[in-house]
Amino acid sequence: MHISVALDKCIDLLTPAINNSTSPVFVDATLGLGGHSFEMLNRFPNLTLIGIDRDTQAIAKASARLSQFGNRVHIAHSVFDRFNEVVKSFGFEKIDAALFDLGVSSMQLDQAERGFSYSQDAPLDMRMDQSQGITAEEIVNTWSHGDLARILRVYGEEKFAPRIADFIIREREISPITSTATLSALVKSAIPAAARRTGGNPSKRTFQALRIAVNNELEVIESALPQALDLLNVGGRLVVLSFQSLEDRIVKEAFAQVTQSTSPRDLPIELPGHQAKFKLIAKGESASDTEIALNNRAQSVRIRAVERVAA
């Protein structure tokens, strides 16, 4: 059974924003299977939902799950860097709350044929939207050594990136690399035995890097957050769940920028119009031990949230 990460915590953080409006609009920018959205719609009968997801399978499942809420639900098949466009396409100019649950979803990981998991053999796909875009197989078999090493180093924070790229180039000259099992075994052989003894599966960082590159994940986050912040009403809140350091760093920096005054630091007073427009209400919090015991995926979550305090 799918368990939404930090469900109660997210609702607690979003509730003041929902209660601040008589007809609140909530955007679930990463709808997935609709767990967070279902609970929000169930708890707040005056709530309107806008759900966004790039995964057509997720949209089909979430649409069925949320169908009981009728015309309170609006769902868009889109990447969430089109946040502003999606919201306005449904006739709304402002919103009261938004949630981003970043990274790969439990459904995508659990479906072996999607190619996200290094523990199950499958085609090297890794696209969150299987209707378009480049696959991990194309990247592995066509990108240059330099580009492969770069994404492994930057997106996977893999210190053996050049060596893994060497092994990939050598292998694909013999035969194309088409499966997760082949790639996982290749990465394992490329990493020295001493380095494989700690840190979990040695393929983890390589698979993360490929997934991020395939789905352009970090650039999408960087584009979407300012749009969501800009659309929030005063009293509105944005909550973000991130599951690895690259995501969390982007969120942390974006929130730091909007929660600081723009007055020169050496002035004893704050200049009119330079006050921070947002305040931090969650600063990288972790899941509770109880939740982690019930849901292993919650182990790495970092929860950040801001509230708009000025127009």
Quick rundown:
This protein is α/β, with parallel strands linked by helices and 311 residues long.
**Shape designation:** globular
SS summary, helix count: 14
Encode the helix/strand succession as letters: HEHEHEHEHHHHHHHHEHEHE
How do the strands line up in the largest sheet? 3-2-1-4-5-7-6
How far apart the termini lie comes to: 41 Å
Provide the low-confidence segments as ranges.
Answer: none
Radius of gyration: 21 Å
Largest beta-sheet details? 7 strands, mixed
Strand content: 15-25%
Strand segment count: 7
- Helix fraction by DSSP (H/I, runs of at least 4): 40-55%
User: What's the rounded overall pLDDT mean?
Assistant: 94
Overall SS class: alpha/beta
Description of the structure:
- There is one protein chain.
- Helices cover 44% and strands 15% of the residues.
- With 311 residues, it is of the alpha/beta class.
- Strands 3-2-1-4-5-7-6 form a seven-stranded mixed β-sheet, sandwiched between helices.
- α7 packs across α8, α7 packs across α11 and α12 packs parallel to α13.
- The longest helix is centred in the C-terminal third of the chain and has 15 residues.
- The model has no long low-confidence stretch (mean pLDDT 94).
Task: Output the keywords.
311 residues; seven-stranded mixed beta sheet; 7 strands
Question: Could you give the topology of this structure?
Answer:
Blueprint lengths: L6 H13 L5 E4 L6 H9 L4 E6 L2 H11 L6 E5 L5 H7 L5 E7 L4 H5 L25 H7 L2 H10 L6 H14 L5 H11 L2 H4 L7 H12 L1 H15 E11 L2 H14 L19 E8 L3 H6 L7 E7 L3
Parallel strand pairs: 1-2, 1-4, 2-3, 4-5
Antiparallel strand pairs: 5-7, 6-7
Helix pairs in contact: 7-8, 7-11, 8-9, 12-13
